[in-house]
Design a protein that fits this description.
heterodimer; A: 367 residues; alpha+beta; Rossmann fold; OB fold (Dihydrolipoamide Acetyltransferase, E2P); 2 domains; six-stranded mixed β-sheet; 9 helices; 21 strands; elongated; B: 280 residues; mainly alpha; MetI-like fold
């Protein structure tokens, strides 16, 4: 019945708090050794889902299988998963060593082995020699590593991480993302990671479950979620997005075409989307800002989309410059362009031409 | 202009402050002075400095006996109160349950019930149930009075211990009892110490309820009160009062200072350290 490659399996899990459906029929299989991220805005149910896996909340309906065994009703201290808390939750009155060996002591692991495993773990998180420090003597990043060591030393079936990097500054967060990935790779432990930060999710995960209002809107690899968002919510939440209504004027082979004036047109490929839209249907189409090419001179379309417009606003972002362009589609489109010499000369009011390839437009909704 | 910062306003505040201090502490100073006055009557004129009254009370067995009774009652009452206040405050802070507001009201109500009423009620209850008056009945009365104070001492501390610490302990394999023993209790300890001292002091100088349920077990405050009718005994009673006053003051100050220091300590330890030190 249960697949040996599956670490955790959620089946129709629901949880309400009063009238609020925090989690609404979530089903999800998490493979052994996978790095899975639950991504979504606050209140989307991601933390509740994680807390149900840990055992701090019990589902109203559905089952949670941990390596094939239903753990609903099992106390958190009897579940073979460990958690990294948002604010680390290190025991302030204990040394680093006592913190890390806490779980092992409860499992009656003998002293020599305990010491050995604590040492290994501190090595893994690169904090050897910190055994006798108190948590208050550590920086935020160091506390984070100790929290990680304290959970991982128990060799859990899965590690649950609840926005673990939320309290760190940007630079350290990037550094810790790489660290987490390295540690996960070295140990091969299943990681379930909760975050509202799409960059974090995209850069670390094997798969991302994008959650909204208690349901999983899309489950897929980072590239898939980013490039082929399944719903308008996913498209909007995972990165900046240009969403536009496209009324189909013409169908040509695999292409759905909307004509705007003499040369401007938006082309969407039916491709794998399996849409049944035809002439007269209206589609909601999304294009990522970095997929749009910006030309100062007139350019041929080579079968893709082409819109002429005028620059409405220029926002310098460092590596990239963001252009807000008014076009015939009636919506201001956001375009990201490398901050090179060409882009630095563009000003508000300049005429530009936007083009993108037909496969860069994703259909969010048809009909 | 703000009364607190204008010159005239500041002088006015200063003056009222000292009048208040005088009002609060002048009686105690008078007590202190008379405890050293070499005169049988507690009144001026000053007839010379003496330690006589301190020597007499140390030789007064009845007085020392009442002190011992009071110490016993206060210690017992404080221990039981502190133990009872732990589950009560955990329930109030950590748990959600039906009619929680009512429960908290019931637990804290003795704060506003007149002591005379409480004493009468306890006396009637003890008679009905057939419990003879003893130091234990006094202690029971004092537990009722002290419990709200002990709870109010523990609640703020408990509120500052993050729930995540207890969850982390559970997550790492500890049941609720080990979690309490290893995590909650050590972090609550300074507040427990304060709760114990507060309960002790409350019990030690309580006279109203005690006089209802004491029977012939005379506590020190009851003894003190009865001696007011015998002017000859008064100077030595005043001397004891001074000693006790000083001891209580020291105990309370130490307890409060200790609580503050350890609170700051806890605050520092549980605060998320957001200042970053590079690890390289």
């Amino acid at each position: 019945m249960s697949d040996p490659g599956v670490a955790i399996s959620l089946r129709g899990v629901s949880k309400s708090f009063g009238d609020v459906h925090a989690v609404d029929g979530v089903s999800l299989d998490i493979a052994e050794g996978e790095f899975l991220t639950l991504l979504g805005p606050s209140g989307c149910g991601k933390t509740t889902t994680m807390r149900m896996i840990a055992g701090f909340e019990e589902p109203d309906a559905g089952s949670i299988l941990l390596r094939g065994t239903d753990v609903v009703g099992v106390a958190p201290n009897k579940r073979e998963v460990n958690m990294c808390f948002q604010h680390y939750a290190l025991f302030p009155h204990m040394t680093v060593e006592k913190n890390v060996e806490y779980g092992l002591k409860l499992k009656k692991v003998d002293k020599a082995e305990r010491r050995q495993r604590v040492k290994e773990m501190l090595g893994l998180v690169r904090l050897e020699g910190y055994e006798q420090r108190k948590p208050s003597q550590l920086s935020g990043g160091q506390q984070q590593r100790i929290a990680l060591a304290r959970a991982l030393v128990n060799r859990p079936a899965a590690l649950l991480l609840d926005e673990p990097l939320g309290a760190l500054d940007v630079k350290l967060r990037k550094q810790m993302q790489l660290e987490l990935k390295r540690i996960q790779h070295e140990l091969g432990t299943t990681f379930i990671y909760v975050t509202h930060d799409q960059d974090e999710a995209l850069s670390m995960s094997d798969r991302i479950a994008v959650m909204n209002q208690g349901v999983i809107e899309q489950l897929g690899g980072p590239r898939e979620v980013y490039e082929q968002p399944a719903t308008p919510f996913v498209a909007d939440f995972v990165g900046v997005l240009n969403a536009m209504d496209v009324r189909v004027d013409e169908v040509s082979g695999e292409d759905l075409i909307m004509k705007l004036g003499e040369r401007d047109r938006v082309v969407v490929s039916i491709g794998a989307t399996g849409t049944s839209a035809g002439v007269g249907s209206t589609l909601l189409v999304a294009v990522r800002p970095e997929r749009i090419a910006l030309h100062t001179a007139d350019t041929a379309t080579d079968g893709g989309s082409r819109l002429s417009g005028t620059v409405g606003q220029v926002v310098y972002l460092g590596t990239l410059t963001q252009f807000h362009v008014d076009t015939a589609i009636g919506k201001r489109l956001i375009v990201h362009h490398l901050s090179d010499e060409a882009s630095s000369t563009l000003r508000e009011g300049d005429a530009v031409v936007l083009t993108w390839a037909r496969e860069d437009a994703a259909i969010l909704r048809d009909g | 202009m703000n009364a607190a910062v204008s010159n005239g306003g500041r002088r006015w505040l200063w003056l009222t402050f000292w009048i208040l201090v005088l009002f609060l502490y002048a009686p105690l100073v008078i007590l202190l002075i008379f405890s050293f006055n070499d005169r049988e009557l507690v009144s001026f004129p000053w007839q010379g400095f003496t330690f006589r009254w301190y020597h007499t009370f140390l030789a007064n067995d009845i007085l020392l006996g009442t002190l011992r009774t009071s110490l016993k009652v206060a210690t017992g009452a404080a221990i039981v109160t502190t133990i009872l206040s732990i589950p009560a405050s955990i329930a109030l802070v950590r748990r959600q349950f039906f009619a929680k507001g009512l429960a908290s009201g019931v637990l804290l109500a003795p704060l506003v019930i007149p002591l005379v009423v409480l004493g009468t009620a306890l006396l009637i209850l003890f008679n009905l149930v057939g419990i003879p008056a003893s130091p234990v009945t006094i202690a029971i009365g004092h537990i009722v009075i002290a419990l709200p104070f002990a709870i109010l001492t523990l609640v703020p501390r408990l509120e500052r211990i993050p729930v995540a610490l207890e969850e982390a302990s559970r997550d790492l394999g500890a049941g609720w009892f080990i979690t309490f023993r290893q995590i909650t209790f050590p972090l609550l300890l300074p507040a427990l110490f304060s709760a114990f001292l507060v309960s002790f002091v409350i019990s030690f100088d309580e006279v109203v309820v005690a006089s209802f349920v004491a029977g012939d077990n005379v506590t020190f405050p009851i003894y003190l009160y009865s001696q007011l009718r015998l002017p000859r005994q008064l100077p030595q009673v005043i001397a004891v009062a001074v000693v006790i006053l000083l001891i209580s003051a020291i105990v309370v100050i130490v307890a409060e200072a200790g609580r503050r220091v350890s609170d700051r300590h806890l605050e520092a330890e549980i605060a998320v350290n957001e200042e970053e030190v590079s690890l390289s």
